[in-house]
């Protein structure tokens, strides 16, 4: 009997000795600092150029900063500028951005400067994409190149993991986001030792990246929405409905992605695809207004600071336009990520629900809308829950979001998400 019970005891992977983990601290800290500084540098350069394009130049010319003509001109010019980088700069700014997610490939060093330049131009010019995918890709390539020279005996696979974790920690100002993404990625892989042994070095890199950004930039995702106190059954029902609607709307963009991407690919040349994308984005901006431009984080805060400042129809238009702008920008070749524009779309949807039904609290509507949109676009449950929760910073919202994520997940699971394979077919 004793022998049988011993045979039935599940085997547990042995823990990694501390002396094996300790040498990873210094490389993880170094990657964390470098990755966060590169992110800060790209965003700072883009902000300076954005001020020139959208304030200094139109003021000097005597035209409206966000007049329809000026939005068309800048978005078209941004398409031309990024198209020139993709066409002429060595490395062509990397592979098709529609094929890249948060799990970035290791690119050769010659590609990285062009990718950084294309990203900065995109962020400044107004297309609806965020910095996350290209900055992670640059940091992964840089870490792999520098790591192989500094510590040639270290396993090559460790550098991309450290760079991804560091960049995600820097983007969201906390290592928790990176821990959730890494844990979700490891769930489908065979691991040596316990989970915390595997995330030890990446968590150090993420924490270092987050601390570096916090010291230098002090980022916050809290939108300052009104407190809703103790959640009730009405709040739960609202969260379930809004999250499900957000997932369905975002799925429309996801299903359209390969077709819109294929249409732009028919143009065959970046100097045709990207300027054409800029023209379409100009049309969308003329419809949705200047708040639907850019990656969307500052514009999301603008909406949240005045939840009753727009009508339900205006919020609905901004939701649809932002999703369409995200779809076009990601399809025509602009280098950028999909998370931050999805946050804006989810916020506009949540505030639309509040404007339609006054009983829907703005905090509940916004967090649930963001949750649904991110679940459909990223297909990453933990990061979707995390982003939706930190926007509100209310302890009671977490329970509502956990419940609301379940029907929303049933809508999106097994379906494609907003990323394509090199042959143009959707990733599931």
What is the fold's blueprint, element by element?
Elements (H helix, E strand, L loop, with lengths): L1 H7 L9 H4 L3 H37 L6 H21 L23 H14 L6 H19 L7 H15 L2 H12 L8 H22 L16 H33 L4 H19 L8 H9 L6 H21 L6 H18 L5 H17 L2 H10 L4 H18 L4 E4 L5 E2 L1
Antiparallel strand pairs: 1-2
Helix pairs in contact: 3-5, 3-6, 3-7, 3-9, 4-5, 4-11, 5-6, 6-7, 7-8, 7-9, 8-9, 8-16, 10-13, 10-15, 10-17, 11-13, 12-14, 13-14, 14-15, 15-16, 15-17, 16-17
How would you explain this protein's 3D organization?
The chain has 428 residues and is mainly alpha-helical. It has helices at 2-8, 18-21, 25-61, 68-88, 112-125, 132-150, 158-172, 175-186, 195-216, 233-265, 270-288, 297-305, 312-332, 339-356, 362-378, 381-390, 395-412; strands at residues 417-420, 426-427. A two-stranded antiparallel sheet has the order 1-2. A hairpin with a 5-residue loop joins strand 1 (417-420) and strand 2 (426-427). The protein starts with a helix and ends with a strand. The model is unreliable at 1-11 (pLDDT under 50).
